[in-house]
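FAQ: What does the model actually see?

It sees only this:
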Amino acid sequence: MSSQTLETARPLRAARYVIAAGVVAALHVGKLPPALPVLRDVLGISLLQAGFLLSLVQLAGMTLGLLTGLAAQRVGLKRSMVAGLLVLGCASALGGLANGAAWLLATRALEGLGFLWVVLPAPGLVRRLVPQERLNGMLGVWGAYMPLGASLALLLGPSVMQLGAPAWGWRIWWWGLGALAAMLALLLCWRLPADPSRRLTTAQAPEGSANFSNRSLLGLTLRSRGVWLMALTFAMYSGQWLAVIGFLPSIYAQAGLPGSSAAWLTAGAAAVNIVGNLAAGRWLGRGARPLALLATGFLAMAGGALLAFGATAHPLLQYAGVLVFSMIGGLIPATLFSLAIRLAPTPETVSTTVGWVQQWSALGQFAGPPLVAWVAVQAGGWQWTGWVTSVCCAIGLLLARELQRLAAQPPAVRLG
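And it is asked to produce this:
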């Protein structure tokens, strides 16, 4: 292997460790859906409590995303990711000791903080590690971290939980994932290059300088129209995706499907989202317009959900609708991560931009599952779920059109 090839391979390998950390963080988000039927029997979790358990992991992101992004920029992207994995490991270990909904809800909130510390530094780290010509493709791979982790959790969870009696199987699942997060934290300490050392000033820096105060970084981020548009668009996507995929095991269990069949079907629905993410990264690298990818994703999610939850559709067609919903919808997150790099006001605000986008993504994931659960309770079934997601898609299309207009403007115009 030539020295030039080796110099390229090392950063790409390091970027893959970053993506692996995101997958492990997503495993902690996705570990709950396959355990919900067991938790409802063992701990007496109600349907509404289940909705909050699905979404409470996003509490930290919903309230602290922007500030955590700023902290990650100041503390160091690598150090932030390692700390997040350790928090995830500890919270999951504590969650395995829960004897009721309250304790489990509290540890899920703590897991949300760890999740945030892992995923917010990732786009900045990928940008730092990967050559420019490989950036769109690698960001497309990064965009798949959530569906990959969620599908692995949905697939592996039932098998792991069968290792013990129902009262203990889910605890083994929690403790095993906690240990995995801790081990990956040690691996990142060893394999990722150290954060660059630099002196940061607390005074306002002149325009074009690499040094900004905390206030100026936050101000640049929050004054950016593009940052707001990306954040709201991500919220319209993430809330409906987690609601549909998160409740699939419960829906299939109510339909009388065996747990193993429900796990495979749900894991497949989550996994196909990866295809959309990878395709978006490739097409963006070839010059595809972001609006075309975002519009395709939202239209497919609306149509797929209406088909999936249509009362008169054949079960095979309903599952095909779920696959369309998830796979083509995967075009959206990869496109938005790429836009976050392009539309961040300055290179120094990439972490705060991703933090604000993540904050609204978390808000969507926090509100989506309880909203869908509430509609299902009121309707006496899941038949109105497709209309809830269609409203989200319509709003997402309007936001995507505004994003396209903004992306077409010169940077000087965008930043005022």
